[in-house]
Design brief:
- With 308 residues, the protein is of the alpha+beta class.
- The chain folds into two domains: 2-95, SH3 type barrels (Roll); 99-307, Alpha-Beta Complex (Fumarylacetoacetate hydrolase, domain 2).
- Helices cover 19% and strands 32% of the residues.
- It is built from six helices and 22 strands.
- The protein has helices spanning 25-36, 50-55, 57-77, 169-172, 188-191, 248-258, and strands at 2-8, 11-18, 21-24, 87-89, 94-96, 105-109, 125-129, 134-135, 141-143, 150-151, 154-160, 176-183, 186-187, 207-208, 213-215, 226-231, 234-240, 266-268, 274-275, 278-279, 290-295, 300-307.
- The strands form five sheets. Strands 1, 2, 3, 4, 5, 6, 7, 11, 12, 15 and 18 form an eleven-stranded mixed beta sheet that branches. A five-stranded mixed beta sheet has the order 9-22-21-16-17, with no helix packed on it. A two-stranded parallel sheet has the order 8-14.
- Helix 1 packs across helix 3 (57-77).
- The protein is globular, with a radius of gyration of 20 Å.
Length: 308
């Protein structure tokens, strides 16, 4: 399934994307239950929050597919049976990040070949970003006055769906709910001020994420996905997930030895450093720019750049 979060009447909602339509999980569930005489206290019950939905596990996924398939069939037979709050045009939705406040935003650095580092390191380099920096599609990135050299990084994101600790590589995918993408923004000068680069990465709005999560049953192979970044429609990053030193299973397994992974955690898997055999072109973001990052089968994430 393809899933997304959005705002309706100021309230957070979540929905399934099918073609051009979004289908609200919670509202579709209510209509389905009423139509079929089902007491919602006796069945799964679909929430309005995507993180809560992932916590339902496989039973929730199956029920959501049943409910949303029914809602779409009903809508296509007669568009007046269900309100436009249940089935609606995806293009008109006010999108937000799929997981608004992840429990942990775990980031991997140096996971792609660079000009001076072509061999796989012994261990992944790990750092954290604050969850408060996560924003959604089309929401503005605000550059603080202290930042002078802001750069972009397209990254595949692993969305954790259930708790996992000390996992094998074979078992790692069992805790993954799905995948989305992110733009891991940072100020290069501030990152280099000390041996720890978090001070250049932790700004509000510096982790755009989304717009959709594709579940593992639909996107089960992540080892050969094209990825790119555009600034004002100019390609500034272009690579493939096949270039990653550590793949999804390896990263999830490794991280589960360091911390307990929980539903709603996200893992940013690193960004390419080379394009067509050369280092990525230098491009510092300024107010007025528009940044687009994209990964094959995961749509694209677009954010305007503004000043503080």
């Amino acid at each position: 399934m393809q899933l997304f979060s959005y705002l309706a009447n100021g309230q957070q909602r979540c929905a399934r994307l099918v073609g051009q339509y979004g289908i609200d999980l919670n509202l579709a569930d209510q209509h389905y239950s009423n139509t079929h005489g089902i007491s919602r206290t006796k069945q799964v019950g679909l929430p309005s929050d995507l993180q809560e939905f992932f916590a339902l596990g496989e039973s929730g996924f199956k029920y959501a597919k049943t409910v949303t398939d029914w809602a779409l069939r009903t809508f296509e037979k007669n568009t007046h049976i269900l309100s436009d709050e249940v089935v609606f045009e995806f293009s008109k939705a006010l999108l937000i990040a799929p997981i608004i406040r992840p429990g942990k935003v775990i980031c991997i650095a140096g996971n792609f070949p660079a000009q001076n580092k072509m061999e796989c390191p012994e261990f992944p380099t790990v750092f954290l970003k604050p969850s408060g920096g996560v924003i959604g599609h089309q929401q503005p990135v605000i550059i603080p006055s202290v930042c002078k050299s802001v750069a972009y990084e397209v990254e595949l994101v692993i969305v954790i769906g259930k708790q996992g600790k000390n996992l094998s590589e074979q078992a790692a995918v069992s805790v993954v709910a799905g995948y989305t993408l992110a733009n891991d923004l940072g100020d290069r000068l501030l990152e280099k001020r000390t041996s720890q680069w978090t001070s250049g990465k932790m700004f509000d709005t510096f982790t755009p994420m989304g717009p959709i999560v594709v579940t593992v049953d639909e996107l089960y192979a992540t080892k050969n996905l094209q990825m790119y970044t555009k600034v004002n429609d100019k390609i500034v990053q272009k690579s493939n997930t096949s270039e990653m030193f550590f793949n999804v299973s390896q990263l999830v397994a490794y991280l589960s030895t360091l911390t307990t992974l929980e539903c709603g955690d996200v893992i940013l898997t690193g960004s390419p450093k080379m394009m067509d055999g050369q280092p990525n072109p230098s491009c510092e973001l300024i107010p007025g720019d528009v940044v687009e990052v994209g990964i094959e089968n995961l749509a694209s994430l677009i954010n305007p750049i503004l000043s503080e």
